[in-house]
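quick q for whoever's on today - can somebody do inverse folding on this one?? i tried earlier but teh output was garbage lol. tokens:
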């Protein structure tokens, strides 16, 4: 649904297409940070993997950046990264403000909420660092592959996301959970789950590229941004 809506805006109202893509990009990132504090289990039958719940959403963050980069180029992709990062700063500021408010006397979950909140601050800081490093890495790899192998859409999508999601898994877990949880199983769980979801998500990017491609020939999109 998101892929279809994004492609529809890019094709039919290209002046709003970038804003729509950035909105989805930011939403994915914000929700992934909120749910990252929860560790979940993936039971494969013969082996169990453990990873933050955000692994379900973060591959979509990478895909949304690819969607922006594919149509609008690396400069707009960098701008999207900056916009998303600024929104996350606001998110943390709002959390700090609300956490400082005195709880109601009948709110019995205050201790649990504060515990989760303080864990969330460290996780958010870890997410900021890994996000800035890996998203910029993704944008540059995607853009470089597009310039060098313009017709190989699958190559640039899979390669940039694979590197992004793998490096992010190492950095995020080390920054967020070192000394708090066993980082080895978490890194393994993140690398496998993120990349599996990322690969399963790839056909949607290819569909998006196919949907917006007619706009290139109809002159609705700025051709230099596509190279």
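ok took a stab at it. sequence:
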């Amino acid at each position: 649904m998101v892929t279809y809506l994004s492609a529809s805006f890019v094709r039919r109202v290209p002046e709003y297409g970038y804003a729509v893509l950035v909105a989805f990009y930011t939403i994915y990132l914000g929700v992934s940070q909120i749910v990252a504090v929860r560790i979940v289990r993936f039971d494969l039958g013969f082996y169990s993997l453990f990873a933050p719940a955000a692994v379900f959403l973060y591959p979509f963050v990478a895909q949304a950046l690819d969607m922006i980069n594919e149509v609008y180029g690396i400069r707009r992709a960098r701008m999207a990264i900056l916009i998303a990062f600024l929104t996350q700063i606001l998110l943390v500021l709002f959390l700090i403000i609300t956490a400082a408010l005195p709880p109601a006397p009948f709110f019995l979950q205050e201790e649990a909420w504060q515990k989760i909140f303080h864990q969330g601050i460290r996780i958010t800081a870890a997410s900021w660092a890994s996000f800035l490093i890996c998203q910029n890495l993704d944008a540059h790899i995607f853009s470089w592959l597009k310039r060098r192998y313009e017709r190989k859409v699958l190559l640039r999508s899979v390669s940039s996301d694979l590197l992004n999601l793998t490096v992010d898994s190492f950095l995020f877990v080390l920054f967020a959970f070192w000394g708090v949880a066993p980082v080895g199983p978490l890194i393994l769980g993140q690398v496998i789950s993120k990349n599996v979801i990322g690969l399963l998500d790839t056909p949607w990017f290819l569909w998006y590229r196919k949907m917006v491609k007619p706009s290139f020939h109809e002159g609705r999109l700025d051709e230099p941004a596509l190279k």
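fwiw Residues 16 and 155 are 28 Å apart (CA to CA). also The longest strand covers residues 39-43. so keep that in mind when u check it
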